[in-house]
Design a protein that fits this description.
Blueprint lengths: L1 H14 L16 E5 L3 E9 L2 E8 L11 E13 L2 E12 L9 E14 L4 E12 L16 E7 L4 E8 L5 E6 L1
Antiparallel strand pairs: 1-2, 1-10, 2-3, 3-4, 4-5, 5-6, 6-7, 7-8, 8-9, 9-10
Length: 182
């Protein structure tokens, strides 16, 4: 576990991997509310055994606190559940209003990709979401414009069935998070 945590922190610090902490949608379809340090808030609701509908809203520090907002509304479909490993598809709508013009914004665009999770221990789960954003053309290309709020990597530790803390990073700017499952 120590090597995994060290690798995760090293990757985040040296390669600045865009990733999600608590606002990361989970390949394991579930009902949850997430709070992240980005700051961000998210919610996901199980609407069928293999389907969840959710979204996130944030104002990442790396874009200028409360000067640029990010949101997404997403649908997850679980394709594979092999005990400790789960694989889901993600599709949705995302946007960046860019309140201050510092970063090119797009009020809406699409997002699509995959969500993976692996349970290392009953309490410890790794999550990797590879989700691209496709903003409506803004006239200026921006790498940050193609980072979906649903994309990222995290390591989550569940204290019990209802509370999980997570460590990672993401397009919302989260690196620590709290998930509340219900």
């Amino acid at each position: 576990m120590r090597k995994t945590l060290t690798l995760l922190l090293t990757s985040f610090l040296f390669f600045n991997i865009p990733c999600y902490a608590s606002s990361l949608p989970d390949a394991e379809i579930s009902n949850k509310i997430g709070l992240g340090t980005g700051p961000s808030i998210s919610a996901d609701f199980k609407v069928a055994p293999r389907v969840s509908l959710g979204g996130s809203l944030g104002s990442p520090f790396y874009r200028g606190f409360f000067t640029s907002g990010l949101y997404d509304v997403r649908l997850l479909y679980k394709f594979l559940d092999q005990g400790k490993f789960a694989f889901s598809g993600v599709i949705g709508v995302t946007g960046n209003p860019a309140f201050n013009g510092r970063f090119p914004g797009s009020l809406f665009g699409g997002e699509a990709g995959i969500a993976l999770s692996y349970q290392f221990l009953p309490q410890l789960t790794g999550k990797l979401n590879l989700v691209g954003a496709f903003p409506v053309w803004t006239g200026v290309w921006s790498w940050f414009g193609n980072v979906s709020p649903a994309s990222g990597i995290e390591l989550g530790y569940k204290f019990n069935n209802n509370f999980e803390v997570s460590l990672g990073g993401n397009g919302q700017g989260d690196f620590l998070g709290l998930n509340i499952y219900f």
